[in-house]
Amino acid sequence: MPELLKDVLVIVQTLLSIAACVLAILIPQKIKWEQKYSQLLCDYYSYDVGAAVMGIVLFFHDDCKNNIDLIPIKYKAIFKKQFKMRGPEGDTSQNYFTVPNEKNLHLQRRLLAQFYIQLDLCARSIFIGKKRVQKDFTSKEANLLKILYYMNEAANSEPIFKDISTDERIKNDKKGMNFYISDIYSILKNTPEYIRE
Questions:
Q1: Range 19-25 contact pairs with CB under 8 angstroms and sequence separation of 24 or more
Q2: What is the pTM of this model?
Q3: Cα–Cα distance for residue pair 115/41, rounded to 1 Å
Q4: How far apart are CA 47 and CA 28, in angstroms?
Q5: Are 130 and 159 in contact (CB under 8 A)?
Q6: What single string gives the DSSP state of each residue in the chain?
Q7: Cα 68 from Cα 139, distance rounded (Å)
Q8: pLDDT digits (tens, 9 = 90+) for 148-176
């Protein structure tokens, strides 16, 4: 009987050491994820992101008249108006925005796109990430992501943003901004309209 007891103890000790190793790996990952996610939430509540959200919503409401088909045309027109090539007489080597940064639609689009890319990466980086993002964000953000998606499409079609390389060896990467925007959209589109307590 003592031999059987020793074997059982060895098995229990082995299982406990495996569990301890797994926890030693998972706990720091969870802590790191919580830090990243809490920083994203702080960014989300910042003035810059709030101003960017308001700018994108006003652009869609006022300029596009809530018509998603007008986004590419209106975005390109505003971009050309807000971004001018300037320099000394005939020198177009310097680029300047004609409006302050916080009111520049292009910079607002980029700021929000980068925020949602980070949110998507955070949602997919740990097994509870997607559920937590769905709990903390609503389907209203999914509507904003639709607008951002079409604005990104317009920006990608604008010649100033096109790849000027003629090297055929450089492949077109399919994981650009819209890859992540569409991924986080699929996570947020079916969430409730309001955050539950």
A1: none
A2: 0.72
A3: 10
A4: 31
A5: no
A6: -HHHHHHHHHHHHHHHHHHHHHHHHHHHHHHHHHHHHHHHHHHHTSHHHHHHHHHHHHIIIIISTT-GGGHHHHHHHHHHHHEEEE-STT---EEEESS-GGG-HHHHHHHHHHHHHHHHHHHHSSTTHHHHHHHHS-HHHHHHHHHHHHHHHHHHHSGGGS-----TTS---S-SHHHHHHHHHHHHTTS-SS---
A7: 17
A8: 999 988 887 766 555 444 444 334 445 56
